[in-house]
Every structure is written in C-alpha cells, then in structure tokens.
Amino acid sequence: MFLWQYLLTLLLLITVQICKAQRCEEFTDLNLCHALIGTNLKVRLLLYTRENVTCATLVSHANFSSHPQFNLSRTTAFIIHGYRPTGSPPAWIQKFSDMLLAREDMNVIVVDWNYGAANVNYFKAVENTYKAADNLTAFIKIMQENGASLNSIYLIGVSLGAHIAGFVGANLNGSIGRITGLDAAGPQFTGNPPEKRLDPTDAQFVDVLHTDIDGLGFREPLGHIDFYANGGTDQPGCPKTMFSGSSYFKCDHQRSVMLFLDSLDRTCTSRGFPCSSYKDFLNGNCLNCEGFGAEGCPVFGYDVTKWRDVLLKLGQTKTYFNTNKVSPYCTTSYRVDVMIWNQDVRWGYITVKLHGNGKETVATINHRASQFQKFTETKLFAQFDKDLQSVKKMSLKFSTGNVLKPKYKLRVLRIRLTHLERKESFCRYDVILEENKEVTFRPIPCEDSNF
Amino acid sequence: MDIELQTKTNGATYLSKEQVPAGNGDGAAYRITEVGEEDGLLSAQTSGCNGGTVASDHAVETQINLEKIHTPQETSAVCRIKGELNEVIFWRVKLWMAIIILFFFIFAVIIMSMLLCSVIHEDKDEIFDPSTFQVPQCFNGSFQLPNLVFTEELFTMSSNESQTLAGELREKLADLYRSSPALGRYFSKADIYAFRNQLLLADFQLTFLMPAEHQDQLRNITLSRKMVYNVFRQFLYDQEPDESGQMYIDPVSLKMFLKH
C-alpha cells in the first residue's frame, strides 16, 4: 500500500514536470464579449528565441534565471501590437517573430497586452498605452540590471503599439537602440506634443512607416526617417468602398505590417526617395539619391539601419515609395525621358510595357497629364510591378483622354528609360506615337548622349 | 380661347366626381394637386390646369391648405404656360415639340462641328515647304559589311561590281532616312564613295537640307550628329542578320561625324 502511494506520487510529479516543460504559451485570445465589457490591462511577455521558435515561454519581471534561452547579450526585439477592437490575436504575430528570428539570432518578445487593447472603447485602450509602457519600462530596467545593454533593445510598435514604444523610449531617456513604428495610430495622438506620442528623441534611431494617414494612421513625421508607402493614404489592393466590410477600415493600416514583413524576407527592396510631397515624388522630381553616397536612397524596412548615421545627421527625412497590390510589394522604378519635336505643346499620359523572357510588365504614368514640349526633355517616373532582367521589346502608348478632339500624334525624337537600381538605360529614337495606338519595338542601348 | 373654355368644363366635371368621397374641401384640394402633379407636360391632357380655378372658388378653409402646396396664382401661371406650350404652331406641331426639336438641333450642330473639326484637323507638323530648305548639313562616316564576299574589284569605284554595290547601299540609306518621321523631310542624298580594306568598310556621305529659320535648333537637335547617327544605328539593330544576307551591316562598326 505504501509502495503504491509512493509510485503514484512519483508518476504525478513526472507528468507535472513533462507538462510544465512542454507547455507553450499562446497569445491571449479574447472575443467580442470581452471587448464589449471592456478589459483591464494585463501585460504578458511571450519570449521566442531560435531555441524555441514556435513555442513561446512566458517571461516574468522577477525571475530571469528560469529562462536559460533568454540571453541578454543578444538583441532583444519587442513586438507591440495595437488596438484590438474584437479581441482576436493579430494574424501576423507568429509570422513576425518567425521572420525576425530567421534574420537574426535574437530574443523576440511579443508584448501581449490584449487585455487592455481589447475594448470597444478606443479611449480606454489609449489610456492603457501609458500603463503598458510603464510596465514594459520596468521590465527593460530589470533586463538592464541583469546585464542587458539598452543599445540592444529594439522596439517594434504597430499602431497604438508604436506610441507605447515611444513612451517606453521616453521613460528610458531615449537611450534604447531603435524603435520602428508601423503606421503609428493617429486618432487621439494627432496634434499631441512630442512627449505624448512617438518622436525622434525616444530612441537612438526611430524609423516610421505610414500607410493610412487619412484613416487610422498618423499624418505627420514621427521619426528620424518616415516612409510614406504610396503617399501614405490608399494602399493598392485595399478595398475602396465600405461594402467590403471590416477590411475597408483596417486594410491600409495593416498593410504596414505586411510591408515590414516583406522587408524581412529580402526578396526585393523598396527604396524611399526623400521628397517634400507625394506629388513631387510621382512627378519624378525626387529621384536624386546622391546625398546618401554609394548606398543610394534608404531602403525601407529592417535594414534601414545601414543609413542610420547619415539619417541622424539629416535630422528628419520624409521619404516616399510605391508598392504593388500583393507581396512581393516592391516595384521596379525607371526614369523615362522623352523629347519631342511637335511644334505645339502636347499633354497626355504614357503607358510603357516591357517584354522580356516571356514576361510582361506595365507602367502607366497617369497620376496627371504630362506636358511635352518641343526639344525639351520631359522627365517621367515609371514604376513596374516586376523587374525584367533583360528587356527584349517595349511598347509605348500615348493617350490624352480626349474624346471629341482630333487624334494627336506625339512625335518623339528620343525616349530613354533608365533603371534606377542598375543605372542601365535603353533608348529608342524617332518614334511617332499616335493617340491610343500601341507601338512595339526593340529598344537599343543608348549611346551615352545629351543633346 | 376656345380650348381653354373647354378644358375648364372638363375639369369641373372631373372634380365634382372626385369630391364625393372626399367629403370636404380639404380633401378635394389634395386631390386636385395630385391630379396636377400626375399630369405630365407631354400628356396633352389639360384637366390638371383647373386645380387653381376650382380651388379659388372653394371656401377659405381650403385656401389655407392650398397655400402649402400651390398658391392659386402660381397654379394658374403653370397652367397658362402649359396652355401656351400646347398651342399648335403649324400643322400638328405643338410649341413644346418645336422647343425640343430646337434643342436637339443645337446639340447636333455642336457634335457635327466637333466631328468636322477633328476630321479636317490639320497637323501643323506635317506642313512644310521643301523649297525653303537650303542650308546644307553633311555627315561622313563608315560601316562594315562582314557578310560580303570580298573581291579585288570592289576597291576600284569605277568597276561594275562596286557600282552595283554602291547603288544598293545608297538606296538602302536613302530609304532609311526618307522613311524617318523626324529626318525624312530634310534628307537630300546619300553617297557611297569608297570601299576600303579587307574588312570591307564602306565610306558614305549624307546630305541634309534645312530651312534658314530655326537652323540653330535644328542643327543642335534634330539634325545633330547624335540624332542622325542613332536613327541609322537603330535601323541596323532592327535588321535581322540572316534576312539581310550579304547586305548585313554591323551596327557596332557604324561611325559617323559631322562634316564642317
């Protein structure tokens, strides 16, 4: 009898031990009921490392020694989510930590403040950001006491999370390494003084992406560098009407995360061109990257740290880039120079199609009617959805949008396309573009020339 | 006047029928206006017109209600206009028909003139007077014919063989520049004046004539070495090596410079 009892206790202890070891922590899953009633703030920190990529462990403020994989000599990235009106876990959270770990051997801590963010009352969630920031600040201070350097702290904040990152940074006197703000929240923060929002003094380096400045995002620059994807307003591929349901509200906003994940993937890069306005950028007035030396204009995303020193020297930089509808989001940019010999000024849109190796890519320059003037070079900015390594043929189409006017002809002396990354260019001389008629030809290597 | 009187009586009978279920003036007033509104302008039915007249005959209490909808003066004005619109101008054409036809006519004239304009549109860039082209601009250059079988006779320009080859090449050059939209009008002639060395280099001269006015602009841009050279080079890149056979010109070998 005694033996039996002894064995049973042992068995129980073993199972408890096994269960304890294998238990994976999950992001808090709440539902609409919680959001309706409202939740009180509870911050959970889920640690992922290369040792436990898929299985998170909960780290507490007190006991660091129980997490042997939590190596404080490595970079520690905190992913801070935003407002959760429905209480569901963010769909991208697992992918985010996976991809960060794939890029670098670091500690990824998912800051789960779903209790606090899940609330139909947005103002309550905004209030909770300050408390969540205090909580996180305390944790980082303990990390510091245990030997972590603030330089190796990297905060990635999405929406409200971006401001939390800002508050944490401010609490720590801006000495943490880097903050990335992904479409920092606008409502209740727009117009706030710097201490009540994310700002460049919150960390040694602050990079911010804007994807929904006319909705849930923040319009003004917030960091050392601010990227405005597609002007920061409407993202391609996102619904334009309310009939598409909830995605109408969140698609633009959420795109910021998708773009950042794409940058982690390194399939292709999106360069941000410094410019005063999106209009100027589209007009091709901001294609000069000489200020950044051999590296060229800063590339959006995880690797923007390469430009850190030059950007810090510049203070604040506002940059623009365009994206595709789906991943891979990066576009291929060409500068197009057109010179005509028509006696009269012509206005219109140019569509460029490139063909090569059975693939085809189109760019329509139609954000405004371009002006073409006799013997004057007209500079256009064409963005293609994919990059063709060798262009065998190209097609050009000129259109004016006029219905009743006579069909005009654009008499081109020379058209020159320059790949902005590879700097290679090809030309075509002496072409007549009849309105709405596509002309296809073989481009020839440019004889390096300026008239 | 005759018509107006008739319609009045018509309206009156119609109204008296309607009044029975309504019972009071109030209801009648509403119905009257309903009739008025349902009456299309084009329906040619004029009974609605009498609403105003009838209403003014009614008791004062009705008047108050009516004021919210139509004052009698307004209604009678509408009525008068309707009446006038329905006047026959000639044959069976009524005034409203004439007005609509007039509008259609104006619209058609606008469209026609726009279409006509686009058809007879003269392209300013296609008008030029070759007799004013007198200032010459010449280019010299050479190119290589790698596919051509070399014979000694080609070196002497007077030989039959070199004459035919020169003729063919001259034709080729002339065709290429004459068909050029930008340069064609200025092109005067092409000459092949020598064949040189084993690699068979052909020397050529191109002559263009341009007008005295704007000659600086033309000299620097349209008829610049860059443009003339690249039009030739582009033509050479477009040719298929196997199709042009012996006459194949190597694009890379093309050299050209302005003759001063």
Which descriptors apply to this entry?
heterodimer; A: 451 residues; alpha/beta; Rossmann fold; Lipoxygenase-1; 10-stranded mixed beta sheet; 29% strand; elongated; B: 260 residues; alpha+beta; Alpha-Beta Plaits; 4-stranded antiparallel beta sheet; two-stranded antiparallel sheet; 10 helices; rod-shaped; disordered N terminus; carboxylic ester hydrolase activity (chain A); Lipase_N (chain A); phospholipase activity (chain A)
Task: Describe the SSE topology.
The complex is a heterodimer of chains A (451) and B (260).
Chain A: H1 2-22, H2 32-37, E1 42-49, E2 52-59, E3 76-80, H3 93-103, E4 107-113, H4 114-117, H5 122-145, E5 153-158, H6 160-171, E6 178-182, E7 205-210, E8 225-229, H7 247-265, E9 273-274, H8 278-282, H9 308-314, E10 317-321, E11 332-340, E12 346-356, E13 359-372, E14 377-384, E15 393-399, E16 409-419, E17 425-434, E18 439-441, E19 444-445
Parallel strand pairs in A: 3-4, 3-5, 5-6, 6-7, 7-8, 8-10
Antiparallel strand pairs in A: 1-2, 1-4, 9-10, 11-14, 11-16, 12-13, 12-15, 15-18, 16-17, 17-19
Helix pairs in contact in A: 5-6
Chain B: H1 2-22, H2 25-38, H3 51-57, H4 60-69, H5 72-85, E1 88-90, E2 93-94, H6 95-119, E3 133-144, H7 160-178, E4 187-196, E5 201-211, H8 215-222, H9 225-238, H10 241-244, E6 255-259
Antiparallel strand pairs in B: 1-2, 3-5, 3-6, 4-5
Helix pairs in contact in B: 1-2, 2-4, 3-5
InterPro entries (chain A): AB_hydrolase_fold, Lipase, Lipase_LIPH, Lipase_N, TAG_lipase
GO molecular function, one term (chain A): carboxylic ester hydrolase activity
Protein name (chain A): Lipase member H-like isoform X1
